[in-house]
Every structure is written in C-alpha cells, then in structure tokens.
Here is the input.
Amino acid sequence: MSQSLKLNPYGFREYDARWVYEQDINNKGITNLGKGLGTQIIKHTKKNNPRIIVGHDYRSYSEEIKTALKDGLISTGCYIEDIGLSLSPMVYFAQFNLNADAVAMVTASHNENGWTGVKMGIQKGLTHAPEEMKELKEITLKEKFITGEGNEKIIKNFQKIYKEDLINKNKIRKKIKAVVACGNGTAGIFAPDILRGIGCEVIELDCNLDWSFPKYNPNPEDLKMLHEISKAVKENNADIGFGFDGDGDRVGVIDNKGNEIFSDKVGLLIARNLSSIYKNSKFIVDVKSTGLYTNDEILNKNKCETIYWKTGHSHIKRKVNYEKALAGFEKSGHFFFNNPIGFGYDDGINSAIQICHLLDNQNQKINEIIHKLPKTFQSPTMAPFCKDEEKYEVIENIIKKVEEIKNKKIKIDNQEIKEILTVNGVRFTFADGSWGLIRASSNKPSLVVVTESTTSDERKLKIFKFIDSILQETGKIGEYDQKI
Here is the structure.
C-alpha cells in the first residue's frame, strides 16, 4: 500500500518551512515540497536544469528527509549538488563558491527533536521572503508541478573548503581563550576547528554530535545553554564563551566574567568597531534589539545610520541587501556581514570571528569593552503560547490597544508612550528610551515579548506586567516558555 500524503499547510512559515516530522508531514509530503521548490526555482531562474546546493543537519531523520526532498527536486529537472552534513551558512557559502542557482538546507535549527524543516533561497545570499513562501505554498498544495529530468552528484570534502575560507581570511594575533559550546548540534564539527584555525585556544563544550540533544537544545537564547557556557568560562578563566545553534547561523556570547551579553549589545560593539573603519555605513537591527543604537555617540560620530526592521533572518538579510548596509544584527544572534566582510548571509562562526577581531584590536577584556556602553536592563526573549491561526489577529488587536493608550496619554510606570513602531508587531517607546515589544513568532505557535529599560529593572518589570495584562485580556494566550 502506498503512503498517503501528509503535509500540514501551517508548516509554510514566514521565511522557512517547519513541521513535526511524520505528525505534520511525511516523506511523500517532503517529496511534494521538493517538487514545489523545483518548480519555483525553474520558474524564477528560467533554466530547465538549475543547479541546487543541498545539505542537511545532524538530526537522526534529516538524511531520509533530504533524500525525499531531492527526489522531488530531481523530478522537476533540477541538478542536485549534495554537500552532505552541513551548517546553513556552509550551504549559503557553497552557492557563491560553486556559483549555483539555489539552495535547500534540511534543518529545524534549534527547534526540539521531532521538528524538521527546509531553509531555501534562490538569489545568492538571500533566503525565501514571505512572497516566495506564499508562492511555494500555492505551487505545492495545488500540485502545480513541472516535470523534467534532473540528476544529482555528491560534492566531497566541501566542509574543508568552507572551513579554510573562514580561517585564511581571519587570522588573529592574540591567543584568545574561547569556550566553544555547540549543544551537541552540527556546529560541533565546524566551530572548534575554525576558531582554532584563526588562532584561538579552544575549550570545547558539548561539541560531540548527538542528535538526542542530551543536555539542552542548541539554542543560544536558551538560559540552560548560557549557564553551562558561563560555568565553563569561569572554570577555565577564558576570555570569551560562544554558544552556537543547531545549524550554525547564530551565536550567543558570554563575557570573561561569565555574564551573558545579549546579542544586540554584541552587535552594537561590532558596529562601533566597524564604524571607525567604514564611516557613513548603514546598520540594520531587528525590532527586538536594544534602543541604544539610535543615539550611539560613536556611530553618530562616524556618521552611521541604524534602521530598525522586521525580526527574522530572511527579513534582515534582505534589508541589509536592499539598503547596501555594512551589517545587520538580530537579537536572536543572527548577524549578517555584507561586502567586504561577508556575503550578506548569517554565519554564527563568522560572527564569533568578528568578536575575536574586536578583542584582537583592543587591549581590554570583553567585560571592560561592554561597560563602555550605557547600561540598560533587558529581558530575555519570552514566548507565550498562541495558536498559529490566531496569533496575527491577536497582534492586530494589540496594536490598536497600544495606539489607543498612546492617544489617551495613559501612563505606564508614570511614563507616556512617545513613539510606536509597527513594522513588525508593535514596539512602543517611552521618553526615557525604555520600550516594550509584542509580535507574532514567525516559526512557532507563540507570540514574542521583549522589554528594555534604560532606568531600572523595576521599570523593565512594570513594562512586562503591562504587556502581560493586555495579552491575558485577549483570552488567547497560554503558558510562557520563560518569564521575568
């Protein structure tokens, strides 16, 4: 009996595709996704046999999913170049290095075991945006597939080419002692080698591959992972700690004292460092990021401009590309470096390398460099459950509610809302620069809540309590993954 098709339409997210494997999608569904993607690539590239770079992460089932995806792609006429076990940035790099037409990376990044997904892109250095995802969904669900004759070849030893490219361009003078944590994800076979290669002394933490993720999910926003890195930094008297996510496109940073540095602050340090070399540059940051970029004295002195934009690696990547910005920084740890530093895509290892350059250039420890930034009180990213089919409507109503509070000059912790940004959910800012954000998650059934105060922890908490109260009023909110 042949397998019946399983393909939940909700798996087509804003800029990538993610499902719980076999519950929401089966191999036949994955093959149809491949057919849809192949059809879309042929339509956009106007080639009968476009060349597609394909890779997969280390989950137990990723290889069988990749095989099903390739079957679909080949049936449309695509020529597959399979680079094997990969990080997402290695697949993006391969598109430039091998001058291919598109990419498809089988990964669910840091999502829990059971999840699978595909990150895909056609234009070099960019991944699918909402319009392309919508088109892909339409082609796939309506089965409007092209048929053709494709083939595949295995590209051997591409890991070596990717590693050497990063190592050869980035040698450092100082012996920086770095804890490198990979949460047993795929980055374990890349990050230690590359950072050693540029000249770091590396202390490995959970770098052996184990798809059951025995300790914690490889997610640099996960407090459990950050605590482990912090412990290792203190025990080894290290200069810095790096935590990489499951597919290696994000990094989390712990300073030499064992304190977490939120990625948006790391981004600001890197932006400052780069702004003195590349004056008049633009930087893109996402709406979850610190408000400090807006009036930063060093960025202002070097005539650099910062634009706040939609959260999500695909959105920031495209905005960096569109604005010809030098770099983009996301609170979640996705950093994007454009020419001449990178190819515009997010690579957690290249991000860690840029931090090593920052330390290489200054005779100070990372905690001393961080202390030069004005102090703010930041919450972690908090995600209350909200159904996929309800979350966007909930946000629409929240925007109206916040606008009404601003118009009526209602005070929160004795502060009026001065500014509202609705490019992605709603970010509202007070006169002292404190702010709160509520948006829909792009890849999970949840909302995203972040707050920051320039004044005190107490104000940060009051802003969160205000947000929580208006969310609870909707009756559509479940448990938070973590709370302040």
The radius of gyration is 22 Å.
